[in-house]
Amino acid sequence: MKLTLLSHLLFLVTSILAITYDEALKLASKDGLLHITEKNYKQVIKNENFALIVFLTSEDSRVGCTLCTEFGPKYKAIAKQYMQNLKDELSGMYNPIDSAEDKERVIFAISDYLEARSYFEHMQVTAVPKLLYYEPGNGPQLSEFNNEFSFLSVENTDSYTRWITGLVPGLELKYLDAQPPAPKSAFIISILGFLTVLFGLFKYRKIAINFLQNVNVWQFASLTLIILFISGYMYNQIRNPDFYKIDNQGKIHYVAVGHNLQYGSETQALTVIYGLISAVLILLIRMVPTINKPTIKLLTSVACCIGSILLYSYIIEIYRIKSGSYPFHLWHVLS
């Protein structure tokens, strides 16, 4: 009984003791990252004499965090590059170990939800990823970080490396210049795929040349890409939004209110509508003039015009749902 009580007290004391910069460096020396887990988060987060940059993520496929899987390898590469420059005396990077300025000493940390659920609960994290900055000595208040990177404005790797260098005195952008290593399997598959396509083009070069010189092929490809881009597929790939939303009353919303939000169902609906409008216009411009019978030509033309009006009405009504102040409408087809 006494031994059990003593072990619990020992665990409690070690869990609340602050970790020093030297200890943090040793823990992060392997891959440049200090891994925050369920067992060590209370100790690690008490950063007495160094700044702490923490990446909160969830790489489990069941969570489906696209930004986590995209940003994670880049963040790990940056942390590893920083550690390599720190160990290399010839790198030219400042030496924060002997610095009198605590902010110049920085540790890159990472924490996965499945490995540190209590830490995420203390932080009241409801969405990932998050990139947080703790000033030296600020860690004891788990939820009071000093700065948070906004993933809404991320465009490229420079966005968050500039954010980091803006917080750490003396750290220059060139010392964080790193690219995540490409998986070997992906590289091999890419090479094999390229060689296969090259062999196929050479063997069936006559068919390939005729195909590539076909105007209809390029028109169809261009139209498809235009529809995909204007429908919001790039937004979905970057943000990974919900397909729809259910409000507190149990009502399902397929269109997000506001120009900065979009649901997956909205993207698919717009894609179908834009595709149908394109098909109607192509029919009206290219097929109708070839019809010989005047009556059929007239009826087809009228049907195409009515179809265009209906389809445009759907698009404009979607705009009105997203913004109540949108002044235009053709026909309230959704009301």
TrEMBL record:
It comes from the Eukaryota. It holds the Pfam family OST3_OST6. The chain crosses the membrane at residues 186-204, 216-235, 269-286, 298-316. Keywords: Endoplasmic reticulum, Membrane, Signal, Transmembrane, Transmembrane helix. GO terms for biological process: protein N-linked glycosylation via asparagine. It is found in: Endoplasmic reticulum membrane. GO terms for cellular component: oligosaccharyltransferase complex. This is Dolichyl-diphosphooligosaccharide--protein glycosyltransferase subunit 3. It comes from Pichia inconspicua.
